[in-house]
Design a protein that fits this description.
Distance between the termini: 60 Å
Oligomer: single chain
Radius of gyration: 20 Å
Helix content: 40-55%
Structural class: alpha/beta
Largest sheet: 5 strands, mixed
Strand order of the largest sheet: 2-1-3-4-5
Number of domains: 2
Strand content: 15-25%
């Protein structure tokens, strides 16, 4: 059976499409965002546990309640698929331009048997080639009605290209860090404070806006998180940026008022102008 492997939002969309069209092919969701956190063979329970513990450390109290059960369930479903996979299966990865999709694919390619046939839909470029106008950053940005035709864009992954992806993954393991970006068609490790310069620059800009004069420059943390996510050239989730806000508060670069249990409940400003 052919198995489609996608990040969560794209996978949920494709599941609905297959249900509507009565297509009987398996869909597996990447269990985790490997752009972030410690890396390793996620087929192994100890690596999964290490990643879950890392997420629990960086999540706000509210995000723990929202996401931790979901992550545990995602790994349970992933583990069921690992137990079921055989050499009679074939895999089709849907990969946009996001680091999340690339790292997910590279990780699985590194640890799955070479005997399993693999194909890839390069979702961002495939979408632009077929429809034009808009180039989605990830497969999750593609609307349901435009997903099925992209199956025609699936290409078999050659041994040479597969080796290139696996080598990139092995380099990430060697570099050892918690944040990856895409640069020059490679995934590279960067320092965890990679986004801090943008965060602080935007914090200063927003704090000086007229609407925040009466609040002594304090403004909602959610505003800054949204600005950073929207302006970043790298697709990054809001929970990571919010964690960086709390790190910058702890280091004295940002001042805050309110409760840090949720990004909805506190305001921030630069500690100094």
């Amino acid at each position: 059976m052919r198995t489609h492997i996608l990040e969560t939002s794209a996978g949920m969309t494709l599941k609905q499409v297959f249900k509507d069209e009565e297509i009987n092919e398996r869909i597996v969701l990447l269990p985790d965002d490997l752009m972030l956190g410690p890396l390793g063979n996620i087929f192994l329970k100890d690596v999964q546990e290490q990643r879950l513990q890392w997420w629990e450390r960086i999540f706000s109290e509210e995000d723990k309640r929202i996401y931790m059960d979901f992550l545990h369930e995602s790994y349970q479903n992933f583990n069921h698929w690992i137990q079921d996979i055989t050499d009679k299966d074939s895999l089709l990865f849907w990969v946009g331009d996001s680091v999340t999709e690339y790292t997910g694919m590279m990780c699985l390619l590194a640890y799955l048997p070479d005997s399993i046939p693999v194909s890839v839909i390069m979702a961002s470029s495939a979408y632009y080639k077929r429809y034009g106008g808009f180039k989605p950053f990830s497969a999750g940005e593609i609307t349901p009605g435009k997903m099925l035709p992209l199956l025609e864009e699936a290409k078999s992954l050659s041994p040479r290209v597969r080796e290139k992806y696996v080598n990139n993954w092995m380099q990430l393991l060697k570099d050892d860090g918690i944040l990856r970006i895409r640069k020059n068609r490679q995934i590279e490790m960067v320092s965890e404070d990679y986004f801090d310069e943008l965060i602080l620059a935007l914090a200063k800009k927003i704090s000086h806006q007229k609407m925040y004069r009466n609040s002594n420059g304090f403004f909602p943390a959610m505003r800054l998180v949204g600005e950073v996510v929207g302006r970043s050239k790298q697709k990054i989730i809001d929970t990571f940026i919010e964690w960086r806000l709390r790190c910058l508060i702890q280091s004295g670069h940002l001042a805050y008022e309110g409760s840090l249990t949720s990004m909805r409940l506190y305001k921030i400003k630069p500690a100094t102008d």
